[in-house]
Amino acid sequence: MEKITLNVTGMTCEGCVKGIKSALESYDGVKSSDADLDTGTVLIEFDPGVIQPSAVEQAIVDAGFDITA
């Protein structure tokens, strides 16, 4: 398993946090995710043999949020 932390903009409430978590954890290979509204970050634990980091990022974008550097 690997972990990545992404800076995500557009999270404004706990509903956004739950939406991101739900979207990410619906993908095979994503073990867990933890979105932090205060810091604007999302920590994702995933299996790189099943899902690539780019697909994890795309899942967040598809859920309606943006990723920043």
Mean pLDDT: 94
Helix fraction by DSSP (H/I, runs of at least 4): 25-40%
- Strand arrangement within the widest β-sheet reads 2-3-1-4
Q: Tally of extended strands?
A: 4
Rg, rounded, reads 11 Å
- Secondary-structure-based class equals alpha+beta
From N to C, what is the helix and strand string? EHEEHE
**Strand residue percentage:** 25-35%
Q: What is the overall shape? A: globular
Q: Give the low-pLDDT segments.
A: none
Main β-sheet description: 4 strands, antiparallel
Tally the helices: what do you get? 2
**End-to-end span in angstroms?**
23 Å
Structural description of this entry:
The protein has 69 residues and is α+β, with helices and mostly antiparallel strands. Helix content is 32%, strand content 35%. It has 2 helices and 4 strands, in the order βαββαβ. The protein has helices at 14-25, 53-62; strands spanning 2-9, 30-36, 41-46, 66-68. It has a 4-stranded antiparallel sheet with strand order 2-3-1-4. The model has no long low-confidence stretch (mean pLDDT 94).
